[in-house]
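Lab notebook, bench 4. Still working through the backlog of constructs that have no structural model yet. Next entry is a single chain of 121 residues. Request: give me the structure tokens for it.
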Amino acid sequence: MKNYKVNVNGTEYAISIELISEQEAKAAQAAPAAAPAPAAAPAAAPAAAGEGEKIAAPMPGTILSVNVQNGDAVKKGQVLMILEAMKMENEIMAGCDGTVTSVCVTKGATVETGAVLCTIK
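Model written out:
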């Protein structure tokens, strides 16, 4: 066993290296490879959006409140939900009059820019 000091990007590490024979090296190479880890289950698909005008998240953030449900009648400019981004509360408003056909997020959900929050028809 040999001990060495290695400096990587200004951090010093102490390592130990064991010297093995050629036969041991060949035996290690011939050993069967470990089976790959099982693949993770696929992520759940996002909630399907209903038909109509899609209301999308203008920025990434967290949904603080959802003020509408499926089937609610809404007017243009009505606050549908509150999105918190960078410690600011942003009102997400209806872009048209209509009926909410789907609500794709819940309170506390984290969303990315462009994620469909709800649809209005």
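Notes after review: The radius of gyration is 28 Å. The mean pLDDT is 82. Flag for follow-up if needed.
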